[in-house]
Specification:
It is built from ten helices and eight strands. With 275 residues, the chain is α/β, with parallel strands linked by helices.
Amino acid sequence: MGTLTTTDGTEIFYKDWGTGRPVVFSHGWPLNADAWDDQMHLVAAHGYRAVAHDRRGHGRSGQPWQGNDMDTYADDLAQLMEALDLRDAVLVGHSTGGGEVTRYIGRHGTGRVAKAVLLGAVPPLMLKTEANPEGLPREVFDGIRAGVAGDRSQFYKDLSETFYGANRSGAAVSQGIRDAFWMWSMQVGLKGAFDCVKEFSETDFTEDLKRFDVPTLIIHGDDDQIVPLVAAGQKSAKLVPDATLKIYPGAPHGLSAIGSYKDDFHADLLAFLKS
């Protein structure tokens, strides 16, 4: 574990496990790098170097008033990649982290990147517009902002239900998984959490996706109640040249933590790393 101080003075916390080709993980909102521990342990145990950071405003990183925007998130990732001299890396991003990875490639290219994985990722655009009728209405995101600004502790507890699909019949979601989600969520600063809602919902990543020129695996659950498959994974797969799209039937947004979905993701991730 270590910390990096960015050019604007924000301290970024990161984990660095194992040796070998780097696999760099970017987490979703409103979590932190701990949400990737299962996958970091997996790849480090298979001969890779696992790196994951807490996005600014989240977890153990600094909580600046400014800079809680997708461009700066991507620039923070770039500074981490440069500080650790990570090359030939595989970038893995979940949800908002998928947006971070996408904007990183859009702004900084793939000079240090060999492959990319987008898991339940927010690109190309979550917000419903005339050009994006499959997206979610602005009222959904206004509701998230209201929840964060109000009783955010209860809001995060409630959000864990749809995040992991615990509201579905037969769902194998433990209370422990939901409790961990709440604990991680309560570590994000209010300003960073609030600002990030606009970033993950209103940022248009279309042109960033077109800049991808490395093998890309896109994985999405078809029962994702947070980031709709039709507005995200399916559209991204059409924009990224030669992308591979894998749809997990019945899988929720937080599929990487849930039973057989986690097993499938681990198998697909390792196969992609080895390919």
